[in-house]
């Protein structure tokens, strides 16, 4: 008891020194003891509140927020242009709200990104957003950029209602929801296609494709969708999926949906034949123009006639957004029309080149031409670079026939350095030249002294001598 | 005697091959087809001709032909076979530890030796060097006595 009391007194008597030490240590260690997880940097740190001011964190925060911003801008797009959400796509439209740490699903919404819009406008989201910005230091002035204001939401809701009313009004023959701006065209379709045995007429119209839902081209009745005997079904089905994949939709997954749909519906007819030359490889450009590409639709009657059974005409041409390339390439032809493949023309050029090369005799020519093609740029400091360039030009000209190959003069000698002790190479060559000259002179001289004369016999000489006069006689 | 390799008998032919081989090493063997060492060398040259074809051209010059004598004198060829290397019409020298750097005298021990030599010359030439070091160890370099010019 006494011991305890003493201890207590002691502790009371000396509170300060110990406590001071403790507090000092604590000040240093207090904040460094706790480990926190930073969602933005994706790491655990013990730096406490200081962490958000570190440059690494700032960088990762900016990228984090910009990524979320992109998703948000997609949602905002739908805010301005509400469109009806097809049930097939709903499971794929999910958004993760980074502030609320929750998934936003669209399973039960009628409109694209409907749930997301309502979420971003909600008070709870705002609260979470504020908390996030405080915790991770995003800048409290940016709150509004990460949420949707109530005004916008109300506008959007109005648009949605109008859409709903449109959808309900145009009921005859329409499969699924149709879209506002195309209402009239849709109605036209319905009127014209009541008689299913007639063939389709030429319809060409432009529209700005800014929605995820594909426009219908004609009325569709389910029973026509099934089993349509077509020989080139396979080919065109392939084309269809091709088609579908090039559609810009809200999510890429949606495209597969469309493709599947197309394959099932067996009406290939119009699109298959007509859009062949047109969507050659332009899917990419279209995929990239996400929402706002303008797609040309032109259905020629030829295609229809070709396919021509009565049943085929007004078949499920839904989802037949023919992806037409912005640059019309109809003139070039394609596999079906029997046009040569694009690489073939290039090949021809190469073949010609090769023939020329083979025709030329020496290996060196062929090798030089092939090497100039292969090796990009040879070292300009290599031995004899200047000579090589000059010679190449000469050979080119000779090939073309501009310069008659000037056979080098007989005295030409290559650059050769003989065995020598001092001086440059050229000196050794000069020496050689001098020696050559000496040799030549010697030869000339020796040739000069000897004069070859034909042998004349004495008798001959005698005979000639008698005529001339008394000459030397034997 | 290798069928792949062109044999040159005239100065004009030699000139044209020297002038037309651009950006490749030109290997000129001066020798006689009947000589034993020449045959050995020709065999190696013939076998490796295709392998080095991307950076070298090989040709044989018959020293018995009259036309070529000027070259025989110019290159100071006294022992055969002698191999002279050119790059872009410039003569390439190689220091192989012998007295004569201007040419390679004798045959090669192995095909790979020849390829190494040609590669060394090519690399040096591409860097702009007119003389290169021989990559072979001394035991594989054929030895000879150089007869100096005025001796």
TrEMBL record, chain A:
Residues 1-28 are annotated as: Disordered. It comes from the Eukaryota. Transmembrane segments: none annotated. Residues 1-13 have a biased composition (Polar residues). InterPro entries: CCDC84-like. This is TITAN-like protein isoform X1. It comes from Nelumbo nucifera (Sacred lotus).
TrEMBL record, chain B:
GO terms for cellular component: spliceosomal complex; U4/U6 x U5 tri-snRNP complex; U5 snRNP. Gene3D superfamilies: Glutaredoxin. Its main location: nucleus. SUPFAM superfamilies: Thioredoxin-like. Keywords: Cell cycle, mRNA processing, mRNA splicing, Nucleus. The keyword Cell cycle applies. It comes from the Eukaryota. It is found in: Nucleus. The keyword Cell cycle applies. One of its GO terms (biological process) is mRNA splicing, via spliceosome. Transmembrane segments: none annotated. InterPro entries: Dim1, Thioredoxin-like_sf. It holds the Pfam family DIM1. Homodimer. Interacts with the U5-102 kDa protein subunit of the spliceosome. Belongs to the DIM1 family. Essential role in pre-mRNA splicing. Required in cell cycle progression for S/G(2) transition. PANTHER family: THIOREDOXIN-LIKE PROTEIN 4B, THIOREDOXIN-LIKE PROTEN 4A, 4B. This is Thioredoxin-like protein 4B. The gene is LOC104587901.
């Amino acid at each position: 008891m006494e011991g305890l009391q003493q201890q207590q007194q002691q502790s009371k008597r000396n509170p300060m020194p110990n406590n001071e030490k403790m507090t000092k240590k604590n000040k240093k260690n207090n904040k460094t003891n706790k480990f926190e997880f930073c969602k933005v940097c994706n790491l655990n740190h013990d730096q406490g509140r200081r962490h958000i001011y570190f440059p690494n964190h700032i960088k990762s925060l900016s990228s984090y927020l910009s990524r979320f911003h992109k998703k948000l801008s997609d949602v905002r797009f739908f805010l301005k242009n509400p469109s009806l959400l097809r049930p097939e796509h709903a499971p794929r439209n999910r958004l993760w709200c980074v502030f609320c740490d929750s998934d936003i699903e669209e399973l039960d919404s009628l409109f694209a990104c409907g749930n997301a819009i309502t979420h971003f406008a909600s008070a709870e989201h705002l609260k979470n957003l504020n908390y996030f910005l405080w915790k991770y230091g995003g800048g409290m002035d940016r709150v509004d950029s990460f949420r949707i204001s109530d005004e916008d939401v109300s506008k959007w809701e109005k648009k949605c209602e109008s859409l709903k009313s449109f959808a309900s009004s145009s009921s005859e023959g329409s499969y699924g929801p149709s879209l506002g701006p195309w209402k009239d065209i849709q109605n036209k379709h319905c009127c014209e296609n009541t008689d299913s045995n007639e063939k389709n007429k030429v319809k060409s119209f432009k529209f700005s494709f800014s929605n995820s839902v594909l426009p219908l081209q004609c009325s569709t009745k389910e029973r026509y969708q099934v089993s349509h005997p077509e020989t080139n079904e396979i080919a065109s089905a392939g084309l269809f999926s091709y088609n579908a994949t090039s559609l810009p939709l809200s999510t890429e997954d949606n495209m597969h949906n469309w493709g599947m749909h197309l394959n099932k519906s067996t009406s290939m007819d119009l699109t298959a034949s007509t859009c062949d030359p047109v969507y050659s490889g332009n899917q990419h450009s279209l995929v990239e123009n996400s929402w706002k590409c303008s797609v040309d639709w032109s259905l020629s009657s030829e295609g229809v006639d070709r396919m021509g059974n009565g049943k085929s005409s007004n078949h499920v041409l839904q989802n037949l957004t023919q992806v037409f390339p912005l640059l019309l390439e109809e003139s070039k032809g394609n596999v079906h029309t029997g046009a040569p493949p694009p690489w073939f023309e290039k090949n021809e050029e190469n073949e010609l080149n090769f023939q020329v090369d083979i025709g030329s005799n020496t290996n060196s020519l062929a090798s030089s031409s092939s090497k100039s093609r292969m090796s990009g740029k040879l070292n300009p400091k290599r031995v004899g670079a200047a000579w090589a360039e000059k010679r190449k030009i000469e050979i080119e000209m000779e090939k073309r026939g501009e310069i008659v190959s000037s056979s080098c003069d007989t005295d030409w000698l290559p650059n050769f350095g003989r065995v020598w002790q001092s001086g440059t190479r050229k000196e050794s060559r000069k020496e050689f030249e001098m020696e050559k000259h000496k040799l030549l002179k010697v030869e000339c001289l020796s040739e000069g002294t000897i004069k070859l004369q034909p042998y004349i016999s004495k008798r001959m000489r005698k005979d000639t001598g008698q005529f001339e006069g008394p000459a030397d006689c034997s | 005697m290798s069928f792949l390799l062109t044999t040159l008998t005239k100065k004009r032919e030699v000139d044209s091959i020297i002038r037309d081989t651009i950006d490749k090493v030109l290997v000129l063997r001066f020798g006689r087809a009947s000589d034993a060492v020449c045959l050995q060398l020709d065999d190696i040259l013939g076998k490796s001709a295709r392998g080095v074809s991307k950076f070298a051209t090989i040709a044989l010059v018959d020293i018995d032909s009259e036309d070529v004598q000027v070259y025989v004198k110019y290159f100071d060829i006294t022992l055969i076979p002698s191999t002279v290397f050119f790059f872009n019409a410039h003569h390439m020298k190689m220091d192989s530890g012998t007295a004569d750097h201007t040419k390679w005298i004798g045959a090669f021990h192995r095909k790979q030796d020849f390829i190494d030599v040609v590669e060394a010359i090519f690399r040096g030439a591409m860097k702009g060097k007119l003389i290169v070091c021989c990559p072979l160890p001394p035991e594989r370099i054929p030895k000879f006595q150089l007869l100096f010019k005025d001796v």
